[in-house]
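sry for the spam today, last one i promise. struct tokens for design, 115 residues
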């Protein structure tokens, strides 16, 4: 089992920045990838950004150039730096961890961007 605890969400004006954190604990060995997903009201959950064990990153087109995913291996933590936020970025953001045991999700953190 892997436990994920997210933090850093909140309310910000358009154009502002937020940084989300996701700390992993438990069976964190053999992690293959970690990522951030988001779900807006009435919409499906979608990938925002991911980072694989080799450091390879992947971004949704809608956030490319504005968001940056990074990790601190020593702290078993992954971050999502979000700049130039837009109202359409408003959603609940979830952290996901994939290892040999399966996929694990955090509880989610709300990000609200006002216009």
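last one done:
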């Amino acid at each position: 089992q892997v436990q994920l605890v997210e933090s850093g969400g909140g309310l910000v004006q358009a154009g502002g920045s937020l940084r989300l954190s996701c700390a992993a604990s438990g069976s964190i060995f053999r992690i293959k990838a970690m990522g951030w997903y988001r779900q807006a009201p009435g919409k499906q959950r979608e990938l925002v950004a991911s980072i694989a064990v080799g450091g390879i990153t992947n971004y949704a087109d809608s956030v490319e150039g504005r968001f940056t995913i990074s990790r601190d291996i020593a702290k078993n933590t992954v971050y999502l730096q979000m700049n130039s936020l837009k109202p359409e970025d408003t959603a609940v953001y979830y952290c996901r961890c994939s290892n040999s045991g399966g996929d694990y999700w955090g509880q989610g953190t709300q990000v609200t961007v006002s216009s």
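The chain has a mean pLDDT of 94. ok im logging off now
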